[in-house]
Amino acid sequence: MKKIKLIWILCIFLFIPNPVLAHPGRTDSNGCHTCKSNCSSWGLEYGEYHCHNGNTYTNSKNQTFYKDGTLISDTTPPTPSNQPNIKPNTPEPPIIIKSNNANLGTLTVDNNNLNIEDTMNYTITNTNPIIEATPEDKKATVKINKPNEWIKGKNEITILVTAEDSTTKKYKLLLNIGNNDATLKILTVNAEEIEIQDEMNFETTENIVEIIGITTDYNATIIGNGEYQLETGIHTISIQVTAEDGITQKEYILKINKILSNNVGVTITINNQEVVFNDYQSNIIYFPYTTEEIEIKYELEDERSSINLQYDKKIPEGRSKICFKVIAENGKEQEYTLNLFRYGKIEDTPSSDNSDNNETSSSNLIPLIAIGGSYYAYRKWKKNHTK
Q1: pLDDT, tens digit (0-9, with 9 covering 90-100), for 105-158
Q2: Closest by CA position to 217, among listed 189, 191, 186
Q3: Whole-model pTM?
């Protein structure tokens, strides 16, 4: 009986599971269940669902354990030996291409935008200008090399742009610091100087005028100089002065009133001898007896005026007159008189005629001298013979 009891006790111990070889809990029909106690000892989390496969079990992290909790592998079960071991694809690192854009994007001088060129020119009056530049590519850099001291005249500035890949490009800025004087100093119209004002007036009878303006600053420029063809009436002419800086400007207005001429002047020659007029009356013009015809030529002071001159070329003996008119452009008329005298074959000194004009021809003095000399000789002879 004792031997039979011992055998039953041994059998019971053989069929009772060892508690260190498994964790508690019943499995479902799939051989799986949820861990409720001592989960960390088996490499599980509380409440983690896992399956038992014979001597091993697998958790939700795809880790495989022996029944005693020893970790076998944290990867998926090995593939069958007849399948190749395929390594996962590893992506190639991206190739980064750096920009070679070394172009200058913007350039400003005292907030004024300049057109981008390899060499740029700009004129200002500011002796301490602010220069700013930005590259076309934001990854590029810009370096501005300014002179240590600004001078009047041209200053050279270099601008170096360095691209992302270290490509460089150089630009040049020639900055001219000039004057801002836009003053008109002298203005002449047909060589007649006019007082300088913002608005000036000038009156003329000429059809063509020449305007010459001179600026205070030699380097300033002026628009408005030159010749102008005028019609009757008022002409408004703009004279613009631009200072050396190219920015400062000033405008002057010149109003020219073209009026009709009242010039009735004339020059007269008779037989190539110029006639002298006194209050539009000529002195007496003497002609010898041998002069039978005369030729009168004229030249008007104003070519726009006209003359009405009609005469007989044959000149009579004695005193005669020729009258003519000069008509100015504006219609003004002026009458002229030519006083003529032609000697006869036997002619005494025309004292009566000369006395009227308070003049005596030198040729007419000869008869007077002869008569006076004869009378003086006669008186002397008579005195000697009466003694």
Answers
A1: 999 999 999 999 999 998 888 888 999 999 999 999 999 999 988 888 889 999
A2: 186
A3: 0.46
CATH number of this structure's domain 104-177? 2.60.40
Q: Cα angle at 297 between 292 and 300, to 5 degrees?
A: 155
Q: Look at strands 249-258 and 199-204 and give their pairing.
A: parallel
- Cβ contacts of residue 29 below 8 Å, gap of 6+? none
Domain 184-258's class?
mainly beta
Domain ranges of the chain: 21-73, 104-177, 184-258, 266-347
> Does domain 266-347 fall into CATH 2.60.40?
yes
Q: Are 278 and 214 in contact (CB under 8 A)?
A: no
- E-assigned strand segments in 178-289: 184-189, 192-194, 199-204, 208-215, 221-223, 226-229, 233-242, 249-258, 266-270, 273-274, 277-278, 281-282, 285-287
The helix/strand/coil state of 156 is: strand
Q: Would you say the CATH fold of 266-347 matches that of 104-177?
A: yes
